[in-house]
Amino acid sequence: MIVDLRSDTVTKPTPGMLEAMWSAKVGDDVFGEDETVNLLEDKAARMFGMEAGIFCPSGTMTNQIAIKCFTQPLDELIADQTSHVYRYEGGGIAFNSAVSTRLLNGDRGRITAEMIAPEINAENIHYPHTSLVVLENTVNKGGGSCYTLEGIKPIAALCRDKKLKLHLDGARIFNALANTGDKAVDYGKCFDGISVCLSKGLGAPVGSVLLADKDTIKYARRIRKVFGGGMRQAGFLAAAGIYALDHHVERLKVDHAHARLLADELTKCSWVTNVLPADTNIVLFDTVDPADDVLKKLLDQGIKANSTDTHRIRFVTHLDVHPDQVEWVIKVLSGL
Ligand SMILES: *Cc1c(COP(=O)(O)O)cnc(C)c1O
């Protein structure tokens, strides 16, 4: 048995999803003529209480387009030091937008209005102009830690007061919603931009949607073209996204229950020194032996995972991790 816990991006389309893709009505989306893409963009926007959406090939692209839309060259954005936009997008903030980044030390990646306020630069020619705050929910590097909407509201209020834009990297926003019970539609009131990944826990093969107001999305279409992300008959991919939104949101709580089972077992293992709270579908834990040695032993038993540090391993549960596989992993962990 092979169990792939490396990432929630490894899922394959289900038969139902492939059927939806196969039968999608498509057109040239660069001409705005792909009705399935248009449907997905409208659907996602409505779900989050936003005016409009744009379908893109990746979450990196939706984040980078948002940063481009919400800043001018020489501006600065504020984000947590673990944030995906800073760490895992290849330096794109500087390259694409000529913007600098002010990093904060949040609680497992979660920052607060109190932490942000003193980092907003005063108007002074020495300082870059602070124009954007980026939050991530759930926080990948925080082990799937969540913001609640109550925690976000003071940040949104601060941004409004200081005339900063607020963007959400919601690669795993539906995991956060499943955990907190907050409503997607209320997110639109807090954020100027929201990225939603369809290819993580939702199980679509490709794609993310950027949501914002109509004017921002109009400009985002220009930026997407410049970034090389204008796709033609993308409706085949958008159909997978629509299917995922209709069928794979409710089931995320199964992934979360699986993650908790794995975390509970890990706390009993003598070769594990620390297990971070498994709030959603990610389990981070620290090992006595080097992570690479442990990963090798796991791989010998058919379990694939990745390290995130010399002594830290990450498990991610997803659509293609089934209950019998979780049972098997637990058995292996207890015998290691
Ligand atoms: C995966 C991920 C993204 C987007 O990644 P792509 O591979 O470009 O789709 C963005 N933010 C976070 C937090 C992620 O985990």
Detailed description of the structure:
This protein folds into 2 domains: 15-247, Aspartate Aminotransferase, domain 2, CATH 3.40.640.10; 251-335, Alpha-Beta Complex (Aspartate Aminotransferase, domain 1). The longest helix has 16 residues, at 252-267. A 7-stranded mixed β-sheet has the order 2-8-7-6-5-3-4, with helices on both faces. A 4-stranded antiparallel β-sheet has the order 9-10-13-12, covered by helices on one side. The chain has helices at residues 15-22, 35-47, 59-70, 84-87, 92-97, 113-116, 149-161, 173-180, 214-226, 235-247, 252-267, 291-300, 323-335; strands spanning 3-4, 52-56, 75-80, 100-104, 129-136, 165-170, 193-197, 208-212, 272-275, 282-287, 303-304, 306-309, 312-316. The mean pLDDT is 98. It is α/β, with parallel strands linked by helices. Bound molecules: pyridoxal-5'-phosphate (PLP). Pyridoxal-5'-phosphate binds next to helix 3. Pyridoxal-5'-phosphate (PLP) is lined by residues 58-60, 63, 84, 136, 140, 169, 171, 197, 199-200, 208.
